[in-house]
Design a protein that fits this description.
- The chain is mainly alpha-helical.
- It is 66% helix and 3% strand.
- It has 7 helices and 2 strands; from the N terminus they run H-E-H-H-H-E-H-H-H.
- It has a two-stranded antiparallel ribbon with strand order 1-2.
- The longest helix is centred in the middle third of the chain and has 30 residues, at 98-127.
Length: 180
């Protein structure tokens, strides 16, 4: 389908991360907000690696079909909502300039949106009768990079903590039924 030019992510850049790093934040949301987004990151990283194996692509396409299925109830909208919820729960210092806060929020939301758009483009490129390897690889890499960019805007201690939390709960949940 014809996609409007506005939806083409323009590659991860560091142009706006200078504001994100200088904006004064009083507190970040708790790890429960971060954990499902961390799970998305693990999936996207695995998926990006998997696209390099042509034999795995039908399974990846099936997974992406499921990810985008269901309009309002799709996983795509779920993660988009989680990204928005996370950003809305960041508390900025009282004296911080509203323009800086706006830019910070926008760059975070854009990184998440670009991740999801790249996944959509990956799905599209895998749907082609003869998939173009360069396009598939590039879309998968973009999804991974944009999501990494989202995580790069977080305090590293939060990233390490959610990584530990994930490893310990996954370790405790040996049969992966979601119950410890």
């Amino acid at each position: 389908g014809a996609m409007g030019i506005a939806f083409v992510p323009c590659g991860p850049s560091n142009a706006d991360s200078s504001v994100a790093s200088s904006v004064r934040i009083a507190s970040y949301p708790s790890l429960e907000y971060l954990e499902p987004i961390f799970e998305l990151k693990l999936s996207v990283d695995t998926l990006a690696k998997g696209t390099q194996n042509v034999k795995l692509r039908p399974y990846i396409l099936k997974r992406l079909d499921k990810f985008f299925r269901g309009d309002l109830t799709s996983e795509r909208n779920y993660y988009s909502g989680l990204g928005i919820q996370y950003v809305n729960n960041i508390e900025y210092e009282k004296e911080e300039l509203s323009d800086y806060i706006k830019l910070d929020k926008e760059s975070r939301l854009q990184a998440m949106e670009s991740t999801l758009q790249s996944l959509q483009m990956l799905k599209q490129s895998l749907t082609e009768d003869i998939a173009n390897d360069d396009v598939v690889t590039s879309n998968a890499k973009d999804a991974k990079d944009f999501l990494q960019k989202w995580f790069d805007m977080l305090p590293s201690k939060d990233f390490e903590a959610v990584d530990q939390l994930f490893k310990s709960t996954r370790g405790a949940d040996a049969n992966h039924d979601g119950k410890l």
